[in-house]
Amino acid sequence: MDMVRLALNFMQLRDAHTARHCVRVARIAALLAESLGICGPELDEIKIGGLLHDLGKIFISDDILLKPGKLTEREFAAIKSHCIKGYEAIKEFVNERIALMVLQHHEKIDGSGYPMGLQKDQIMLEARIMAVADVYDALRNDRPYRRGFSSQKALDIILDGSGSLFDEEVVGKLLESVEIIEQKIFGQELNKVVSHFNRELAPDTGEV
Ligand SMILES: [Fe+2]
After folding, report:
1. Which carries the bigger pLDDT value, residue 105 or residue 144?
2. pTM higher than 0.85 for the full model?
3. In 3D, which of 69, 115, 12, 178 has the Cα closest to residue 123?
């Protein structure tokens, strides 16, 4: 855990936004994982994977990382390299599962993600959880080029990608857990949003 603190400290000094994002993603991913029945050492691994998932961004220059406008192809390729850079930075110091969460957190169910274009269960469950937590947090928060979305809009965007970009079961757990995520992490009541989305999702996800 000292290594994780050290890495977070590097991130905090290099890019405080990314460090705060990693802390929130770790918490959201842990809540989702718990609701999927993950506990004990596996849950701890997800917390560590969340804290480290964007570590590779410390190796990307500010003019690309903080660029407000549209990225060129070369700049986007540099951003995308953060998964491999983060993986390379930690693989000697954490177990393989945590390193793979970092490597795979931008993979998408339909194979459109990066860095490897993995599909469905080629992507480890923990990385599929991380992907949903990561995108939800990214959408909820301000970026240099846009304001953060409302929780309802963020859920709407993720729901749109359920089964194609994001794991359906994990998205279902996000909908179930969104009120507690908002209360614990974003500090808002979301009763109306939750009931709205539970109604929306019910036909597609059975029990959820
Ligand atoms: Fe990332």
Report:
1. 105
2. yes
3. 115
Q: Are 52 and 85 in contact (CB under 8 A)?
A: no
CB 173 within 8 A of CB 34: no
Q: How far is the CA of 206 from the centre of ligand 1 (A)?
A: 31
> Are 132 and 138 within 8 A, CB to CB?
no
Distance of CA 152 from the midpoint of ligand 1 (Å): 22
Distance 192 CA to ligand 1 centre (A): 30
Q: 2-205 maps to which CATH number? A: 1.10.3210.10
Q: What is the pLDDT of residues 186-207, one digit of tens each?
A: 885 444 544 444 554 454 433 3
Distance 189 CA to ligand 1 centre (A): 27
Tens of pLDDT, residues 13-55: 999 999 999 999 999 999 999 999 999 999 999 999 999 999 9
CA atoms within 13 A on the CB side of 199: 5
207 CA from centroid of ligand 1 (Å): 30
199 CA distance to ligand 1 middle (Å): 31
